[in-house]
Amino acid sequence: MVAAGGGPIERMGWTASARSKHVSAVTVAVPPGSQKGEFSRAAIHEVGHAAIAVLVGRTVCSVRLRPRPETVVAPRALPRGRPKTDADRALLESEVMVTVAGIAAERVFGLARDAAGALDDLSRAADLAVRLSGPARAEATVGHFLSVVERMLQGRRTQLAAAARALQASGHLQADDVKARLHR
Q: How many domains does the chain have?
């Protein structure tokens, strides 16, 4: 990643910790006693992951808020190192898109940034982007895919809001429910 300020990551207001080599599950930490708005933020974030996963052909197993917010997407074996084929490249690109989708969903709804889960997602996306385009272009690659995903979600804002409300109310959505809500 580029260390100097002014790139897409700095313009988004992310901290330097987002650049660390950290790979984790796509989750948003919601501390006990959080305000309802924070919980809604977690629902929007997780529904964003699920929506893009469905749109890029991934299998969404479930989305949940309790006991810990997460979107469970069926794993795919990612190629090691730089992609050698177009299929490997497409797979890594779709993984970056799913990874940044929570952040993009928060942006679509005008929610504040710099939540723990968003930083973890950004860090994972940066790791994947290094494999796609090399260290010098990783930041631009993440910025590009974040913009693409944000545009994709903007056109589905109504469906995202409905899915997030359903997730908020029940705490859990099954794969079929996610697909049905996104295709209304």
A: 1
CA distance 167 to 64: 7
Residue 8 inside a domain? The answer is: no
136 DSSP 8-state letter: T
Of residues 85 and 155, more confidently modeled: 155
Tokens 């933020």, residue located: 41
Question: Which tokens is 11 given?
Answer: 């313009």
Q: Give the up-direction half-sphere exposure of residue 159: CA atoms within 13 A in the CB hemisphere.
A: 17
**Residue 125: which domain range?**
29-182
Query: Is residue 92 domain-resident?
Result: yes
pLDDT-derived band at 18, boundaries 50, 70, 90: very low
Q: Which two tokens stand for residue 134?
A: 């090399």
184 vs 181: CA distance, rounded Å: 6
Instruction: Report the predicted TM-score, pTM, of the whole model to 2 decimal places.
Output: 0.75
For residue 140, what is the domain's CATH number? 1.20.58.760
Residue 20 lies in a domain: no
In the block, residue with structure tokens 């993440």? 142
pLDDT of amino acid 82? 77
Contacts of 149 (CB under 8 A, 6+ apart): 48, 52, 97, 100, 101, 104
Q: Identity (one letter) of the amino acid at 140?
A: A
In a domain, 17, yes or no: no
